[in-house]
Amino acid sequence: MGDDAGHAALVDLERRRVALALAGDSAAFAALVRPHLRMLHRVAARTCRSPELAEDAVQEALSVAARTLDRYEPGTSLKAWLAAITSQRAWTLVRGELRRKQREEVAQTPEHPPSPEEHLRGRQAAERVHAALAKLPEKRRNAAMLRLDGGLSYAEIAEALDTSAASARVLVHLAVKALKAELADLTGGRHDD
Question: Is the predicted pLDDT of residue 11 greater than 50, yes or no?
Answer without folding.
Answer: yes
